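Today's session is about reading a structure prediction critically. Students often jump straight to the picture, but the first step is always the sequence itself: look for stretches that repeat, for charged clusters, for runs of hydrophobic residues. Only then move on to the predicted structure, which in these notes is written as discrete structure tokens rather than atom positions. Here is the chain we will use throughout the hour.
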Amino acid sequence: MNDRANDEKLRILQERLAQIKQKDETPAPQEAVVEIETPKESIPQNEPTPRSFGWVKYVVIIGALGYGSFYAFNNIDFSNIFASDEAIEKTKEFVLEYNLNFPGEDEEVKNIAITASFEDESSAKAMVNDLKEKGYKCDYFFLPEQSNSSEEIYKVFIGPYETEGEANQEVKPLKTEFEIINL
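Below is the predicted structure for this chain, in token form.
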């Protein structure tokens, strides 16, 4: 019975292999594609076609470049970039030096606070009078006569004081811009 069962199994296995082999050799049937035509009446004719907004990125890029150029033109000093070496050396060499002498004062380091600059002497005198009324020790000078500058302006100053801190403390209540100079 064992041989017969084995023969039966072998026959079934051979039939099955033959079926698989036959299936692999025969081509699969092609599926037919059927196109169904829709009537033109069912498609709405007045519906707008979708629009592309790809051009927006180009507008943004051009706008950013334009704004960057405008900002650079208005805020960057290009004169130093294109200046000659000779012109740059001239600007580096000039250091404003004052030669102010205060009679009766010690020859130690003196500090003054320059509070304003005026083109005309009458304005400088008026400010000095206002400051003197407020109790400040002040005066003015013509810049070309008291320094190495050729700029023709009158400078109003408060002082002299022995230390920079003292000058700073005296001028702060005025709430104006000032420059403290060591003489």
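Discussion point for the tutorial: Residues 111-182 form a domain with the Alpha-Beta Plaits fold (CATH 3.30.70).
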